[in-house]
Inverse folding.
């Protein structure tokens, strides 16, 4: 696959930073080069994160909590996701752009998922993310076969927080760990080309990562993943209240937002963040 656009500005400029591709992300995973992902919801931050060398931007439905002030991600609509994906796409130039399919936008049928995914892709997403294992494999297969790159999301899946009984660590105990491992393999076999693992024991996330040939991005899942994602407002110290143990405030001691973002990227790339002794479970 060509990594530079065939048409338009920037094509073939010597030394120009190339736009991120799925192929390159897969290569990074295979070579053990850590992938830095941050959530992003607007054009200004898209530009700042992209300039700081963030590999992938996630327009997460966490925006329901950090931007809209809801207590969960459930109220976020597809229209709202489209708006934020459009904003981020305008500011971004190089990073791989993932858009979250919000709660209720892919649960009814594969056809509904396809419609929702198409709308996000038309808004500028290069990949869609959906939550859960088991039943989602058929949805992933349906989308992947139709040319939509899909990132799956296992562990703590915030759209199901009510069913999970709160923001709790997942995959603890033999049976829960076995189910999670099985779901991860099924999703990869169905065609998922990236996986997010959230809030689980580091050893389990490491095992899942090593068992797959796709990039696995962790959040509260320890240092053994192919890369890390944090919610932007958490890593910039803007989130009020008690933060989960896996978060690090990169504004601590940083002279500017840009410096904090660069430090986050550097720490992830050097595999100094997360430190399992401090941030792991
Ligand atoms: O919505 C989001 O921001 C996410 C990340 C926390 C992985 O799904």
């Amino acid at each position: 696959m060509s990594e530079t656009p065939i048409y338009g500005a920037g094509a073939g400029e010597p030394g120009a930073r190339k736009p991120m591709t799925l192929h390159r992300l897969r290569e990074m995973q295979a070579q053990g080069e850590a992938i830095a992902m941050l959530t992003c919801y607007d054009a200004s931050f898209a530009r700042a994160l992209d300039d700081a060398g963030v590999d992938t931007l996630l327009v997460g439905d966490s925006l329901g909590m950090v931007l809209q002030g809801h207590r969960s991600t459930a109220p976020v609509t597809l229209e709202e996701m489209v708006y934020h994906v459009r904003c981020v796409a305008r500011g971004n130039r190089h990073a791989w752009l993932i858009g979250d399919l919000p709660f209720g936008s892919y649960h009814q049928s594969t056809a509904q998922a396809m419609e929702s995914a198409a709308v996000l892709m038309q808004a500028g997403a290069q990949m869609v993310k959906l939550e859960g294992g088991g039943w989602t494999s058929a949805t992933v297969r349906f989308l992947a076969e139709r040319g939509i790159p899909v990132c799956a999301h296992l562990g703590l899946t915030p759209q199901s927080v009510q069913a999970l009984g709160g923001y709790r660590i997942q995959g603890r105990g033999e049976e829960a760990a076995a189910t999670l491992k099985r779901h991860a393999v099924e999703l990869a076999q169905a065609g998922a080309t990236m996986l997010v693992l959230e809030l689980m024991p580091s050893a389990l996330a490491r095992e899942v990562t090593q068992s797959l040939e796709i990039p696995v991005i962790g959040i509260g899942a320890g240092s053994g993943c192919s890369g890390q994602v944090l919610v932007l407002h958490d890593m910039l110290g803007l989130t009020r209240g008690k933060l989960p143990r896996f978060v690090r405030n990169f504004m601590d001691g940083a002279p500017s937002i840009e410096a904090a973002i660069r430090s986050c990227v550097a720490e992830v790339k050097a595999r100094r963040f997360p430190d399992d002794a401090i941030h792991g479970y």
